[in-house]
Write a structure and sequence with these properties.
The protein is α/β, with parallel strands linked by helices and 307 residues long. The chain is built from ten helices and nine strands. The structure holds phosphoric acid mono(formamide)ester.
Length: 307
């Protein structure tokens, strides 16, 4: 494992190793406080972010390392026309590891092909978001106690939702996962995910339009935002943006041990009243994101502590 560009760059053993290390870090944070001393993480964010960028930065600082970077394309020389490849070649001289978010699918892959230091895809357009996937897996493991034998409903924008594509890719490798894909027709999971991932893996899946018709079957409900920034036509966004709003009334039909995940940010697709329901775990999920990124940085840099 040199880079993390696609969730399937990781074997199931790699994932187990990262999740186990994240659990060890959570159990004894002081033990890891100096493990990345002298190492630098560069966060190259060409697209807005709160959780991913700041959890990467918090992760590196908690490991005793330091952080450089930029939080928008406007404040980098990309605004002057510099290519991703050239940017990465230069940053390689300044840092030991790169986390890159970019609006164009494939940009982190291009960076990884031009440098010798590890590159992590922190989200590329509507394509993939593998560190959110690790975050989601850790959240599911911690809150459900297992990563197999689950019925998971993905709800909202399944067409442009890179977190959804990444998590489907990864979960389809585990045993006995049943996928229920809840979206308006226009925002269904792309055909390449259905054909290349779901059909090929033999996973059970079905597509529905109404959340109420399936909520009682779910072990995990993965809510997503309808992403304004991915629409070419504002009228389509306005028509689809309120397709699903999860509230306490809809949750009456759900299992008591359902877990509600959301990669965040939320707009209005989960009513604030749901936040205090014990089944809502999306803010814990954001915290797990920091620990799993600490573990990933350690793995990619080959760092360990004496045990
Ligand atoms: N989940 C996620 O990627 O959030 P940000 O866009 O705030 O990084």
């Amino acid at each position: 494992m040199k880079h993390l560009i696609d969730p399937t760059d990781l074997t199931l053993a790699d994932i187990d190793g990262i999740l186990e290390l994240a659990e060890k870090i959570m159990a004894d944070r002081p033990a890891y406080a100096q493990v990345a001393k002298g190492k630098k993480l560069a966060t190259l964010f060409f697209e807005p972010s709160t959780r991913t960028r700041l959890s990467f930065e918090a992760a590196m600082l908690e490991l005793g390392g330091s952080v450089i970077g930029f939080s928008s394309a406007d404040t980098s020389s990309a605004a002057k026309g510099e290519s991703v490849a050239d940017t990465a070649r230069v940053i390689e001289k300044y840092a030991d590891i790169i986390a890159m978010r970019h609006p164009k699918e494939g940009a982190p892959l291009v960076a990884s092909m031009n440098v010798d230091i590890p590159v992590i895809n922190a989200g590329d357009g509507g394509h993939l978001h593998p560190t959110q996937t690790l975050t989601d897996l850790l959240t599911i493991k911690e809150t459900k106690g297992r990563l197999s034998d689950l019925t998971i409903g993905f709800c909202g924008d399944l067409k442009f939702g890179r977190t959804v594509h990444s998590l489907i890719k990864q979960l389809s490798r585990y045993e006995n996962i049943r996928f229920i894909l809840i979206s308006p027709h226009e925002l269904q999971v792309p055909d390449y995910i259905k054909e290349e991932v779901l059909v090929k893996s033999g996973a059970s899946f079905r597509e529905v339009e109404k959340m109420e018709s399936v909520i009682g079957e779910l072990d995990i409900l993965y809510m997503t935002r309808v992403q304004k920034e991915r629409f070419f036509n504002e009228a389509d966004y306005i028509r689809l943006k309120d397709s699903y709003i999860l509230d306490l009334n809809k949750l009456k039909k759900a299992k008591d041990d359902l877990k509600i995940l959301h990669p965040l940010p939320r707009v209005n697709e989960i009513a604030v009243e749901v936040d205090k329901d014990p089944r809502a775990v999306y803010f814990e999920q954001a915290e797990y994101g920091k620990f799993v990124r600490m573990a990933l940085i350690m793995k990619l840099l080959g760092l360990s502590i004496e045990e």
